[in-house]
Amino acid sequence: MIAINGDGADRFYDGVWSDGSGSSRHTCGAGRNNVGDLVCLSGAQSGWKCDVEVKKVDVETTNDEGTKIRPVDIAESKGGDRRAVGAKGDSGGPALANPSGANGDMEARGVIVAGRSEVSCPAGSTAHSTSCYAQVMYVPMTPVVNQMGFSIS
Fold first, then answer.
1. DSSP 35-59
2. What is the per-residue pLDDT across 93-140, written as a single tens digit (0 to 9) for each?
3. pTM of the predicted structure, to 2 decimals
4. What is the rounded distance in angstroms from the CA atom of residue 97 to the CA atom of residue 10?
């Protein structure tokens, strides 16, 4: 959360950092992830990706520096086709969900922290030449909201 003049905003940007045609979208709350849920990811390098399926919840991982991160949720493309769902440089971007579809208001589900299972980046799919990943890991939003004592509405 970034507070501006004492107030947080209930919106997120859904494009790559270099795309002026991306849009600001409404966030309608925070929710918990369950295995099988579909989420959308918004990364600064790879932009807006939906039909990303939650595969594991509340697991522990170790980053490149050897620091253990827990809890994290792991998601990959729906159907497991090893499609690129994230890229190096997406960390800090939101994971979101909406049961009524990817075009409505979105519920915050987490913050992207890492990618794994490197795959080829589709041509033109990232803001710059970078590495792409078939899995994305993100810190779930519910523990963050509870620990920090704020709400998203």
1. TT-EEEEEETTTEEEEEEEEEEEEE
2. 999 887 666 566 788 899 999 998 999 988 877 777 889 999 999 999
3. 0.81
4. 14
C-alpha to C-alpha distance for 15 and 33, rounded to whole angstroms: 23
- Asked whether 74 and 112 are in contact (CB, 8 A), the reply is no
Is 61 strand, coil or helix? strand
User: 8 and 150 in contact (C-beta within 8 Å)?
Assistant: yes
Side chain identity at residue 36, one-letter code: G
Q: Is 147 exposed, middle or buried (0-12, 13-18, 19+ CB in 10 A)?
A: exposed
Beta pairing class for 94-97 and 132-140: unpaired
What secondary structure does DSSP assign to 112-124, as a single string?
EEEEEEEEPPPTT
Rounded Cα gap, residues 126 and 18, in angstroms: 10
What is the phi/psi pair of residue 141, to 5°? -75, -35
Give the Å distances, CA to CA, from 137 to 8, 148, 153. Answer: 25, 21, 24
